[in-house]
């Protein structure tokens, strides 16, 4: 499909430079704004220019009002329609495209979350733009930095597309301040497209512990835990003593010790907490890709040669079945 720009965003004129304007896609669940998605606003601020936020779903008003308070946002575009509650990309993509065309934005920014990853490439395709994924820095309005090969190389990419469609790595852009702004709220356009996809149900892992992706402290267990029973017996009290979220290596997830949603790494979540404690994890590059930007990395492993110790700031060589309960007791009594 073609994308016609309206004046003053006319690209045919070399004298008319398009004004920089970003649309930050904000996530919500059950009428609550996801504060992690405010990273998109931080990225938009780095670009400069005007910043609008986008929210959609049923009973969207309270979400829009909450988003309007975010520092640095001029306008919230809100679409009230239950069809967008679950963020199905099949109808969310055409919805966004209509609103992007109307607003004439130069940059579309969303988090590199499950939602952003499935949505923005579709938006990019509809706009005939090249999707720019998982950026960790912005050099200027056309130039972005992104890790490739599981973080083993850093690519600097330049885009000449009229509309840059970008997902950002949350750990590289802190969430914008939720207070201090006073944006206006405007109804967005709703194309109300018929879709052949239907939301059936979801089965969410519930936890009272901090959210893995945004927690300040994470304790992760690996294959060294040996079984699900041992994983729970050893790791959960440690997490609670520290007030930490629980993570896991892929080996631990694949062996059924931990839920899929806890996987840290290249094919799991990318985290960058203040403290990351790896227990019985060898430190394969695919695991490091998900945690090596943590501020302090600690590791407990019985093998002094384990590669995790090459990235660890502090390490303890020993049997986790002995050391972790001891550590947990000390934390509890301190
Ligand atoms: P192992 O490598 O088996 O290490 C277990 C460690 O526990 C060892 O170092 C051992 O010394 C230690 N240990 C054992 N017993 C004890 C004990 N009693 N006390 C103390 N220490 C003990 N992996 C991820 O984690 N996340 C990913 O997202 C991911 N994505 C991948 C994507 C691809 C395409 C591929 C090919 C692989 C991916 N992997 C990923 C897998 C990765 O390569 C490793 O296989 C995995 O990380 C190993 O997990 P582990 O460290 O728990 O297990």
Automatic annotation (TrEMBL):
SUPFAM superfamilies: Adenine nucleotide alpha hydrolases-like, DHS-like NAD/FAD-binding domain. GO terms for molecular function: electron transfer activity; flavin adenine dinucleotide binding. FAD binds at residues 223, 249-250, 263-267, 280-287, 301. CDD domains: ETF_alpha. Keywords: Electron transport, FAD, Flavoprotein, Mitochondrion, Transport. SMART domains: ETF (SM00893). The keyword Coiled coil does not apply. Residues 22-203 form the Electron transfer flavoprotein alpha/beta-subunit N-terminal domain. It comes from the Eukaryota. GO terms for biological process: fatty acid beta-oxidation using acyl-CoA dehydrogenase. Binds 1 FAD per dimer. It is found in: Mitochondrion matrix. One of its GO terms (cellular component) is mitochondrial matrix. Its cofactor is FAD. PROSITE patterns: ETF_ALPHA. Pfam families: ETF (PF01012), ETF_alpha (PF00766). InterPro entries: DHS-like_NAD/FAD-binding_dom, ETF_a/b_N, ETF_a/FixB, ETF_alpha_N, ETF_asu_C, ETF_asu_C_CS, Rossmann-like_a/b/a_fold. Belongs to the ETF alpha-subunit/FixB family. The electron transfer flavoprotein serves as a specific electron acceptor for several dehydrogenases, including five acyl-CoA dehydrogenases, glutaryl-CoA and sarcosine dehydrogenase. It transfers the electrons to the main mitochondrial respiratory chain via ETF-ubiquinone oxidoreductase (ETF dehydrogenase). Heterodimer of an alpha and a beta subunit. PANTHER family: ELECTRON TRANSFER FLAVOPROTEIN ALPHA, ELECTRON TRANSFER FLAVOPROTEIN SUBUNIT ALPHA, MITOCHONDRIAL. This is Probable electron transfer flavoprotein subunit alpha. The lineage of its organism: Eukaryota, Fungi, Dikarya, Ascomycota, Pezizomycotina.
């Amino acid at each position: 499909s073609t994308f016609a720009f309206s004046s003053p965003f006319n690209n045919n004129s070399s004298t008319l430079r398009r004004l920089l304007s970003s649309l930050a896609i904000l996530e919500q669940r059950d009428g609550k704004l996801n504060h992690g998605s405010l990273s998109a606003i931080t990225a938009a601020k780095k670009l400069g220019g005007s910043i609008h936020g986008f929210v959609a779903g049923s009973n969207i008003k309270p979400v829009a009002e909450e988003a309007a308070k975010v520092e640095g946002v001029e306008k919230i575009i809100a679409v009230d329609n239950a069809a967008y509650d679950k963020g199905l990309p099949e109808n969310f993509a055409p919805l966004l495209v209509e609103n992007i065309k109307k607003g004439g934005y130069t940059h579309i920014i969303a988090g590199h979350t499950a939602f952003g990853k499935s949505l923005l490439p579709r938006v990019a395709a509809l706009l005939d733009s090249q999707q720019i994924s998982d950026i960790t820095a912005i050099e200027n309005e056309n130039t972005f930095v992104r890790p490739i090969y599981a973080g083993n190389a850093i690519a600097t990419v330049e885009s000449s597309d009229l509309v840059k469609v970008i997902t950002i790595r949350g750990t590289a852009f802190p969430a914008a301040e939720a207070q201090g702004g006073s944006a206006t709220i405007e109804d967005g356009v709703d194309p109300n497209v018929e879709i052949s996809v239907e939301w059936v149900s979801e089965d969410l892992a519930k936890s009272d512990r901090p959210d893995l992706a945004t927690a300040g402290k994470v304790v992760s267990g690996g294959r060294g835990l040996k079984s699900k029973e041992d994983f729970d017996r050893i790791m959960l009290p440690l997490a609670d003593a520290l007030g930490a979220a629980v993570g896991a290596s892929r080996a631990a997830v694949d062996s059924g010790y931990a839920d899929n949603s806890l996987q840290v790494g290249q094919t799991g979540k990318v985290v960058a907490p203040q403290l990351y404690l790896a227990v019985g994890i060898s430190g394969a590059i695919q695991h490091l890709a998900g945690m090596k930007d943590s501020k302090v990395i600690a590791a407990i492993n019985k093998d002094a040669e384990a590669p995790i110790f090459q990235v660890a700031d502090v390490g303890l060589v020993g049997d986790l079945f002995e050391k972790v309960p001891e550590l947990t007791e000390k934390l509890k009594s301190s």
